[in-house]
Amino acid sequence: MMNQPLLQKKDNLTSIQSARLSFPALDQSVNDHPLVYFDNAATTHKPLSVLKSIDQFYSSYNSNVHRGVHSLSEKATEQYENARKSIQGFINAESAQEIIFVKGTTDAINLIAQSYGRSNIQAGDEILITEMEHHSNIVPWQILAEQNGCKLNIIPFNEKGELILENLDQLLSSKTKLVSVVHASNSLGTVNPIETIIRKAHLKGIPVLIDAAQSIQHGKIDVQKLDCDFLAFSGHKIYGPTGIGVLYGKKTLLEEMPPYQGGGDMINYVSFEKTTYNELPYKFEAGTPNIAGGIGLGAAIEFFQSYDINSIIAKEQALLKYGQKKLLEVPGLQLIGTAENKTAVFSFVLKDIHPHDIGTILNQYGIAVRTGHHCTQPVMAHYKIPATVRASLVFYNTEREIDFLVEKLHAVNEVFK
Length: 417
Ligand code: PMP
Fold this sequence. Notes:
38% of the residues lie in helices and 16% in strands. By secondary structure, it is α/β, with parallel strands linked by helices. It folds into two domains: 7-45 and 308-415, Aspartate Aminotransferase, domain 1 (Alpha-Beta Complex); 51-305, Type I PLP-dependent aspartate aminotransferase-like (Major domain) (Aspartate Aminotransferase, domain 2, 3-Layer(aba) Sandwich). It has a seven-stranded mixed beta sheet, with helices on both faces. A four-stranded antiparallel beta sheet has the order 13-14-17-16, with helices on one face. The N and C termini lie far apart (55 Å). The model is unreliable at 1-13 (pLDDT under 50). 4'-deoxy-4'-aminopyridoxal-5'-phosphate is lined by residues 104-106, 134, 136, 182, 186, 211, 213-214, 234, 375.
C-alpha cells in the first residue's frame, strides 16, 4: 500500500482536478473558512510523496553522504544522487555534473556573481538585467559592482509589464559580459521571451543566466534547447522543500569557474602548500549538503512529472483567463501586469485601500494572498505604487476559490465605502 502513488494519475484533466488531494496542508480551515491558498509564488505546498521521502530519510537511513562505507551512508548517497539525476532528466541537462545543489535561486545567483562574475567581469564591464528582476537578481550584481567596478544595464518594460526589446541590440554592447534575466516575473506574472534574448546575446558571444524561480513549475524547460548558459530555480516553488535549489551550468563554463566556498567535499587533496579541487558538481558543494532537501526535491520533480505538463499549463491558463475576467468585476480594481504571455499571477491594487489592509481582511476568510513589493521594488517604482496584493495560483487551485476571492473583495469595498 505504502508504495502505491496516492493518486492513480496520468495525463488527463480529471487527475489534474484531483491533484489537490495529494496536498495535506490544503485540507484545513483558517479562521473557520476552508483555506484558499493563493500564495504559491512565495512557496507552494508539498505533496504527500515529498513529505514521505523526507520522513523516510530521517526515520530510516539518515546518514551523511559521499564519505561513508556503511550501508546507511551508501543508501543516502544513492538517493541524493538519484535526485540529481531526476533533475538532470527533468531539465534535460547533458550531464548530472551540470546540476549543482544550492540553497535556492538566491544562492545560485550569488554563486554565479562571486565565482563566474569575479573571474570574468572587470571594471567598466556591464551586466544586463531587466527592470522586473527580483531583488535576488539585482543585489548580487550590485555587490559585485562594488567589488570590481562593473556596471548594471537595464532592459525596461512597458505599461503592460512586457519587456521593451527594440533596443536590445544596443543594450548588448561590447562591454556586456553577462545577461541575467527572469523568465517569469513574480510580481507581474509576465513570461519573458528568453529564447530571443539568449539568441541575440549569443550572437555577440555573451552568456545568459536564466532566473527560472517562477517558470520551472509552470511549463517545460529544456536547457539544451534553450541553450542558456546558467539556470537557477528553488525547490520550494515546485512542490519541494525549502533550503534546496538548483544551479544548472554548462559544464565547460563550470569547469573554468573557481569554487565559491571552501570546505569539506569540494576538495580532491588538501595540504598546507596546495589544495586541489574536486570534480563537478562537488567543487561547488562545500560542506554537508541539505541531504533531506535534495531527496525531497527529487520526489517533488517525480511528482510534477507524473502529470502531463500540457494539462498543467492548460489548467493554469484557464485559471488565469477566468481570474482576469472575474477580478475586473470588482469596482475600482486595477490589475498590475497585463502581459499577453503570463503565469496565473494577479497583482492588483484596489482604489486607495492599502494592500496590507486588503490582505488582512482576506485572511479573516481563510484566503492567503501576499501583499507588499514582492522583492521587486523597481517594479513598484515603475507603477508609482508602494505595494500590490498578489494572488498567485497553481494547478491545484480552482475557479470556485477565485469566486470566493472576488466575493470577499466586494466585501473589502463595502468596509471602505
Ligand atoms: N527570483 C524570483 C523571480 C523569485 O520569485 C524568487 C522568490 N520569490 C527568487 C528569485 C528568490 O528565490 P529564493 O528566495 O527561493 O532564493
